Amino acid sequence: MTAHVAVLMGGWSSEREVSLSSGRAVAKALRDEGYRVSEVDVGRDVASVLAQLKPDVAFNALHGPYGEDGKIQGLLEIMGIPYTHSGVLASSIAIDKPKAKHVWADLGLPLAEGKVVRRATLIAGPVLPKPYVIKPLNEGSSVGVHIVFEGDNYQPANDADWHFGDEVLVERYIPGREVQVAVMGDEVLGAIEIKPQGRFYDYEAKYTDGKAQHLMPAPIHASAYAQVCDLALQAHRGLGCRGVTRSDWRYDDTAGEPGRFYLLEINTQPGMTPLSLVPEIAAHKGIGFNRLVRWMVEDAGCDR
User: Fold this and answer.
1) Do residue 9 and residue 74 come from a single domain?
2) Known catalytic residue at 187
């Protein structure tokens, strides 16, 4: 009997369009693999929609709040529907950057120094020496991220486009290179270096063709490559993640190689768009997009 997969996409977070792109690509791949697929643009009636569809498994292609923060996972647990990617606890911790950093600090993983402050506190003056990085506590795709260099006067308290709450994560800016690592189950797929055209790998660079150069495998010192792969697996296991994750790292090689890595965050539901990194890393490992998507469904506990 052909398994029925509900691909959950869209939603109402700031990453809605990215999620729709991921979901459509996943749905096509699953159909190519012989699954029966229902595409669900998630609204607040998602429970009744799923109750009517009665899928064998849900492929969670949602990004951002309500999709990868444990909320939809909790609903799927209550409804008894197996689902892809990490569970409730790992998802809720991973999306909350400060809480994830507390766990990783206890594990001894290398982290950028930082603190959580109220937006109004930044008006009184920098809470860290410049340059530093301002981030929302629980957004993905670099949404809301700003790097404040010497001479910059950016303040989220004065930004009409800041819709991410009154608390802000402020971290020391780490010079060097952008490296990201994909983990699939209990195996590291590899590390890729990103060279954005702008100051950092922001939302536009992530989802606009030609705005960033992808170097796979990351052309870094061999011992550094092995180290970041090991660290990524520790980060994945430390939060209790399952399925596929992508961790983001800064590699400070300004004093020469091998340099020093700093863990920024882990994404429990990496993008599956044409420009997404996990499919690119997997392809270099010999795992095509369709096979990758099929593995995620099988890992969720659904075999055709």
Assistant:
1) yes
2) no
- Name residue 49's amino acid: V
pTM: 0.88
Selecting among 16, 119, 177, 246, the annotated active-site residue is 246
**Would 295 be classed as within a structural domain?**
no
Q: Report the percentage of the chain scoring pLDDT > 70.
A: 88
pLDDT of residue 207: 46
Comparing 43-47, 162-166, 295-299, the range with the smallest average pLDDT is 162-166
Pair 155, 13 in one domain: no
- Claim to verify: residue 136 and residue 19 sit in the same structural domain: no
| Same structural domain, 102 and 183 | yes
Is 260 a known active-site residue? no
Q: Give residue 140's domain range.
A: 114-172
Tokens for 55? 């899928």
One domain for residues 43 and 145:
no
Catalytic residue, from 11, 14, 15, 140: name it.
Answer: 15
Q: What is the predicted pLDDT for the residue at 172?
A: 92
Q: Does 271 participate in catalysis according to the annotation? A: yes
Start-to-end CA distance of the chain, whole Å, equals: 7
Mean pLDDT for all residues in the chain: 88
Q: Is 178 a catalytic residue?
A: no
For residues 39 and 92, the answer to whether their CB atoms sit within 8 Å is: no
Tell me which of 172, 195, 213 is where a domain ends.
172
Nearest-angstrom CA–CA distance, 87 and 100: 15
Least confident of 44-58, 87-101, 111-125, 129-143: 129-143
Residue with tokens 């099929």: 294
Distances (CA, A) of 6 to 26, 52, 67, 174: 11, 11, 14, 40
Q: What is the pLDDT of residue 140?
A: 55
Do 123 and 45 fall into the same domain?
A: no
Residues 188 and 263 in one domain: yes
Q: For this structure, is 60 an active site residue?
A: no
38 carries an active-site annotation: no
Q: Which of 68, 259, 271, 276 is catalytic?
A: 271
- Catalytic residue check, 225: no
